[in-house]
Amino acid sequence: MTALHTWPSGPDGLRELYPREPHPTLRVNFIASADGAVTVDGVSAGLQGPGDKEIFDLLRASCDALIVAAGTVRAEKYDALRPDPAWRLAHGLPEFPLMVIISGSLDLDPEQLIFADAPVRPIVFTHRGAPASPVREVAEVIEVGDDRVDLAAAVRHLHERGATQLLCEGGPGLLGSMIAADLVDELCLTVAPLLVGGSAGRIAQGVPAPPRPMTLRHVLTRDDMLFLRYARASTR
User: Fold this and answer.
1) Would you say residue 117 lies in a domain?
2) What CATH code is carried by the domain that includes residue 138?
3) What region does 168 belong to: left with phi over 0, alpha with psi -120 to 50, or beta?
4) Percent over 70 (pLDDT), the chain
């Protein structure tokens, strides 16, 4: 039976609900409104509410690598990745997780803080047909795939580097591609108590793919926010 939880009294209780797994895991974290919108006015900030930031920070602090699409880096104005280095060191993890960006065009600003203020040189996965770009001077650019990014190869590369606990924050196109490639092991979904309407998209977009059965691990509530954790229904 799926467990329904109220908000834990401290951070340790919350961490027990979102543990690091003993096996390689690709976890995705998204927020959507009650009517399925993934953004308000083009960004996710308008959906955030009580508890969402705590889970967001916790998942970042406990991952080995954070994966995000270039479009999300630009739209959400990502800065340098420094999630709770004291907690990470105390639990035997490197001080900072890897920052990983997926980009076919390499249309990224090398002066954006995600590069200019990075404590660890970010990784950008692209393909062998990608153009020249100044981002190659500020990031480790790795080519996987001939004319599009081979996400499965990118995940294998991260595993080979010892990064087995992977967290993806989007965007919808990247999640859709990961679903199509059957790479997603967990979905952490925050449902905000809002009706947004309009033309905002859903959390995953892309080519059709077979439905992937998932199991609901827990339901967590805080005020009117709902936090759902789904895991792959069967092992690989």
Assistant:
1) yes
2) 3.40.430.10
3) beta
4) 98
Domains held by the chain: number: 1
Rounded alpha-carbon distances, angstroms, from residue 90 to 47, 59, 61, 87, 93: 32, 16, 12, 5, 7
DSSP-H helix ranges across 63-208: 70-75, 85-90, 113-116, 151-160, 172-180
Alpha-carbon dihedral sign for residues 153, 178, 193, 44:
positive
Residues 6+ apart with CB under 8 A from 156: none
What is the mean pLDDT of the segment spanning 133-137?
Answer: 96
Give the pLDDT confidence score for residue 28 in this predicted structure: 98
Q: Cα–Cα distance between 74 and 133 in angstroms, integer?
A: 16
Range of the domain at 122: 23-232
pLDDT at 101 over 80: yes
Q: Which residue has the higher pLDDT, 86 or 2?
A: 86
Asked whether residue 144 is domain-assigned, the answer is yes
